[in-house]
TrEMBL record:
Residues at the catalytic site: 50
Binding site for substrate: 112
Domain NADP-dependent oxidoreductase: 25-288
Site (Lowers pKa of active site Tyr): 79
Pfam families: Aldo_ket_red
Gene3D superfamilies, per database record: NADP-dependent oxidoreductase domain
Name listed for the protein in its UniProt record: NADP-dependent oxidoreductase domain-containing protein
């Protein structure tokens, strides 16, 4: 099945559906990625912070070696973690990810969060009281390192993740190479309509993580795809609630990257390209949104660059 693609402001293209791998445990993620590629997924999303780049690289290598895909068929996204935000730390961090994957280039490299932690090898450095140790490195400095990654051919495209509208506007205004993508939480609860409008105006595409709302999330946020209105649509189109959630993103120009490690779900989630929600149904779903986040990262709220101090 052919997956639609979106064209970035640098001319590169990204498949508008992918496999998310956050919290996919060691030993599980390799099989999940191999299964996804076999099903037809060509876009795999990960991050240095997820600590699964090596396993994903192994899965990619196996599917290339067995002839299922070529490297150029795949679109691999990974992200710079918060402990490498100084300009001179970005290229080495990118090279470490490339080494983990065993790849020559990354298709899309993102700044994972706009705020920075204390530099070093600890993913989440903490002080004696257990609080995260921040350093207020400006993400504009970090971006210069991202631009170097592209200029050196380590990555095809560069972008950001979890940036609010003001942060994105500030970055676009000063960047030598414009960001092509902002990966943010987009769910039935958090439909991100105002932020999507800003991104469109700036010619920045949007990837939506946790499109299924992370069932069983630690914040107890209710999953709307179990609601009667969504289940009615699922019945109408002979789809699952998860399919409706992902199709809702897709039709609003957002690339969904649902995470799963279960082969049947990986296959099921991919089944969204043969139906269309009506404009009225889209509007109805938008009205259901509560604005609740499953990824608020409240531990970082004291950072100067914490993105959720403003509504969008």
């Amino acid at each position: 099945m052919s997956v639609p693609s979106v064209t970035f402001n640098d001319g590169n293209k990204m498949p508008m559906f992918g496999l998310g791998t956050y919290l996919s445990k060691p030993g599980e993620v390799e099989e999940a990625v191999k299964c996804a590629i076999q099903v037809g997924y060509r876009h795999i999303d990960t991050a240095f912070f997820y600590e699964n780049e090596k396993e994903i690289g192994q899965a990619i290598k196996e599917k290339i070696n067995d002839g299922t895909v070529k490297r150029e068929d795949l679109f691999i996204t990974t992200k710079l973690w918060c402990n490498s935000h100084k300009e001179n730390e970005v290229v080495p961090a990118c090279k470490q990810s490339l080494q983990n994957f065993g790849l020559d280039y990354i298709d899309l490299y993102l700044i994972h969060w706009p705020f920075a932690f204390k530099s070093g090898t600890e993913l989440t450095p903490r002080d004696a009281e257990g609080k995260i140790e921040f350093q207020e490195t400006d993400y504009l400095e970090t971006w210069k390192g991202m631009e170097s990654c592209k200029q050196q051919g380590l990555v095809r495209s560069i972008g950001v993740s979890n940036f609010n509208s003001e942060q994105l506007e500030r970055l676009v205004a000063s960047a030598q190479i414009k960001p092509v993508n902002n990966q943010v939480e987009v769910t039935l609860n958090l439909n991100q309509k105002p932020l999507l409008e800003v991104c469109k105006k700036l010619n920045v595409t949007v990837t939506g993580f946790s499109p299924l709302g992370r069932p069983g999330n630690r914040y107890g946020i209710k999953n709307l795809w179990d609601e009667p209105e969504i289940q009615e649509l699922a019945k109408k189109y002979n789809k699952t609630g998860a399919n409706i959630a992902c199709r809702f993103l897709l039709q609003r120009g957002v690339t969904p990257i649902p995470k799963s490690i279960t082969p049947s779900r990986i296959k099921e989630n991919f089944d969204i390209f043969n139906f269309n929600l009506t404009p009225e149904e889209i509007t109805k779903i938008e009205a259901m949104g509560t604005g609740a986040r499953v990824a608020p990262f409240t531990e970082a709220k004291d950072s100067l660059y914490y993105p959720f101090k403003i509504p969008f």
